[in-house]
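Sequence in, structure out.
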Amino acid sequence: MDTLHTKIAGGSFVIEDLDADLLMTPEDFTEEQRMFAETTRQFIEGEILPRDEQIEKLDYELTVSLMRKAGELGLLGADVPEQFGGLGLDKVSSTLINEVLAGASSFALSVGAHVGIGTLPIVFFGTREQKNKYLPDLATGAKIAAYCLTEPTSGSDALGAKTTARLSEDGKHYILNGSKTFITNAGFADLFIVYAKVDGKHFSAFIVERDTPGFTVGPEEKKMGIKGSSTCPLFFEDARIPADHLLGEVGKGHKIAFNILNIGRFKLGAGCLGGAKEAIALASQYANTRTQFGKPLSSFPLIGQKLAEMNMITYVLESMVYRTSGLIDMILKHIDHTSPDAGAHSAKGISEYALECSINKVFASEALDFVADEGVQIHGGYGFIQEYKIERIYRDSRINRIFEGTNEINRLLVPGTLLKKALKGELPLMEKLQALQSELLQLVPGQTFEGALEQETHSLSMAKKIFLMIGGLAVQKYQANIEEEQEMLSHLADMMIQIYAMESALVRTKKMIGRVGETKARHAMQMTQVFVHEAFERIESIAKRSLAALESGDTLRTQLSILKKLARSVPVDTVRLKREIAARVIEGEKYTV
């Protein structure tokens, strides 16, 4: 989108309204972007699904050969710059590839770990020599990558790593000692991005080749799901890593680790989106063919309600994922990857939307869990049987709430990052809080709404005010100690997640109405109506719980009175709307917009 040249500050969505022209949506996909999606779909149908059972049995040789076929089609080089053997595609295209790949189950994870957290550290932070040496092979699948951060005693606490590195006396090697655990692709990877503390203090990143003396790969873990992907521990016993395999600078490994995790969180959201769409197709098709009491299962309103809610949350997730892809594309597209400053520019660009990446990760992983769970429920007893793929989607989905930083950690990061940006002067958050104080003392008059999605637009505006109200009170009460108030931070995060979701769907739908009219956008309008109303109710409920923790007595009653004015809305008939949404999903037997 040519309009995406304007920078939108990360986190600004809580204090500013989004210009529809600056929103990337699936309706904006170019023919070229759709072509990459179709190429990916054909590859999955032709190469992966016929071998699905064998892949699930963890056949290293097969997985690697299929990854190389994917590389031949360009599916591994989307994020690798052209000058280093890749396609250098925009982030929307690579997101679309990632979404479609989700239909490949465990194989999608093998590819995702390779192209994302495995390859991107070198793309963004490697020296020109490192890029020339490794990226062409990573883009074709001639070499497979793995990312090695987690240790037996440090998961979310990444900087608590115990693996050490010391420079040899001749300065030619770093000597690594320690271990890593839960490493995806470890069984067959050729390159490993490994984090260790130089002299036990300076957190740093290294490129480690598989045949390095002193480096060994442990046995496969027996996992609940994603069984067709390799997950092993790694061990380093005086492993000698050439000094020029240091990635970035000594002591700056956290910039690589955390920014790559941000991209990983965002890419995980795209994978969850693909999984949700597949679950909807499986569940709606089953509901149409399964007969109970002489009628198709899909004819029962409570089954229809499930399908409607599954489709609605997936529409919202899709809106969020592609909105975020547009933001990331906007800020990274002009980076010169041959420049010595590429790493610094990449880190700054990625970190700008760290907050949005965490929001995507939390919402997407929990949305897929909901959709997969309801899919199993619609299948009844058959949903518990491995012959039906919904059973695998259910098992495989669970890891997403743990991957790339647990959802609890990401919930703490969302408001924490917002406050840091405000304190640095990057967002006028405090000014907005002060302006709101006087506004809240005035009566919010009742309003009538007649135009399409006018009430929902008002609800979004009020949701932002409620968030600022609660956030202002929390900062005022806890001040610097707010970092210790994890429950309150989680409340603030949940409100921000709902606001980002509401706005993503609402602005997308309004943009759609502007293009095709209300009649053709009716389905999207109904889903947006229901979601915004239900999300607004969730925000009001969170706000009440927050106020109860922040205030008491007459002050609490006063604040609740203000909240009641802000949260005033006219309920909509969600029963009717969900029945109409369900009817279209049942008719189409797939995710429907």
